[in-house]
Structures are given as C-alpha cells and as structure tokens.
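S.,

Sequence below, as promised.
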Amino acid sequence: KHTQQSKNDERFFSRQFNYNLVFGKNLNKLDNFRFERTESDNKNYSNPDNDPNGDWRSGDVRSPNPRKTLCYNIEAPDGSVIKHPEKGWRWSEDTLKEKIETGEIIFKPDNSGIIRKIYLSNQDGRTPENVWDGDEFGTTRFANSEIKELFGNNTVFDTPKPSLMIVKLMELFHKNRDYIVIDFFSGSATTADAIMKCNLKDDGTRKFIQVQLQE
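The prediction came back faster than expected:
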C-alpha cells in the first residue's frame, strides 16, 4: 500500500497499492516465507490451564470442506453426545482420539464441544499477508521523506521505494542472513541502505550488488 491518502483526482477509485512480484527458480528448494514473531503476533496465546507445552490459543475444529467421512459424533466425558459440525470435523475419528489423548484437543467445561490447542512453541515465525499496510511497511510519502533528508529537502525521484519495505522483504528470509542481493535498478540505492540496516539489526552478513544504467 504505497499511500494512506485518498486521491481525489481519480474518477472512480483511489489507487493505493503497487505489486511486489515474486518468482522462484526452484520453489521446492526455497524456505517458506516467514516474518519473525513479535509480541503483537503472540498476544492471543496464553496458558490458562498450566499446559506443560506452554502458551496456546484455540483453533478451528471444523472441516473447511464437506466430508462425509468426517461427519461423526463424539462422546463427551459426561456421556453426552457432541454432534459433528455441518461439514464435519477437521480430522478422522482415529486422529481426533489421538489428539484427545495427547491433550491437544480438550473438552469444553460444559462438555458442549471441543477445543483445539495451537501451541506457540510450534509456530515457525509468521506467514506474511499479501497486503502490506503502509504503517508497517512504509509508503511513498515515507520514502520521499527519506530522500528529502538525504538531498537537502529535494525530492529527486518520482517514485522512491521506502527502505522499510525492502527491509521487510529481506526479513522474509529470516533463517538466512548471509546472501547476495542484486538490484538492477539502483536509483537512490534504497536496496543497499535497507540491507545495511538489516545487517546492523541482526549482525547479518548480507551483501548487495547495485546496477544503474547511465541516465
């Protein structure tokens, strides 16, 4: 999202986003994109029942798609019957029983349903969303402010990219802090600046190659 402001010169919709296109030569060899988790990411995790596996949050127990084989009822500890959701449970009956035995699935206090525990210790970072809000990832206005600070209050590039956005792109590879980034359109060298910021932040050894055609 490159701007937080509405553009009144647009006729129908104010266009507020650009695309980051992502390609992979061999996706099977590429690690999953993940951001490091923050306190905000973990705010819904707690351990009200002193589970030895640590903090957890409740997760969905319903099947996302209709599956007849997953439509079975469950007997609660008090002998009452818990009916299956409309589309069925998320797991087979045998798998669900295993999860109950391990404590990953518990019964609600009134035995009216079940609760699935998703443990914080099992979370590998945070999956990035496909819309990057300007408050967290920077905007064109933010980038212009960076340029003005460097060039005596002059905006010398029409569409600068915020260094914060490039930093966040680098953080997608948080397990690897030693690689080379090639930027074929160096411009104001936002990429170089962002990578140096990343290295300062986590003692990484990332390197960069900046290419700029004569203009």
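The CA atoms of residues 123 and 181 lie 28 Å apart.

Coffee later?
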